[in-house]
Amino acid sequence: MPPSAATRNFPRINELKRIPVFKPLKPRQIHFISVLLKNHFSVEKASRYMKCDWRIHYIWLHKPEYKQAVEYARDLVGDILESTMLGDAIEGHKSDIVYKGEVSGNFREVFTSERIALLKGLKPQYREGFSLNSVGPVALAISYPSSGNRAITPDNSLSKLGNDLEEAKIINPIKP
Length: 176
Prior knowledge:
Layout: H1 13-17, H2 27-38, H3 43-50, H4 55-60, H5 64-91, E1 93-99, E2 102-109, H6 112-122, E3 139-144, E4 148-152, E5 169-174
Antiparallel strand pairs: 1-2, 3-4, 3-5
């Protein structure tokens, strides 16, 4: 199985044997995890390469040592993927310029969506639904067409305002 560009950073079997979490495992289990790493955690592909039944991996997962080693391997893959994506998001992907079927040069292509996704992962304030809870209670003034303004406070909840909330319009917030 020739290593692809994405799998070159994965540790080889001899390197895995030196990691303490892999020491209690049998050589065949370490080899299986190594093949799992190279096949992007596809149990089917790894078992085909190892010439064993795919269910053996799930039988081994019942053993805490093997399960811990697989979780370590997943973390390792996540760290490698994160560093690769971070590098690509900052530096861009190297792409060829093709003109009339011939490569005439290359350039760095940057994907904004990758940068946004990584920024959301690294900085919580950029995630959807993020709110600062240190702001404190806020009262809103709601204007009804028929009854004027009422202030909503923790004591005066929305349920006490009546059924005409569809007609309600939120105006400038009031500090309590």
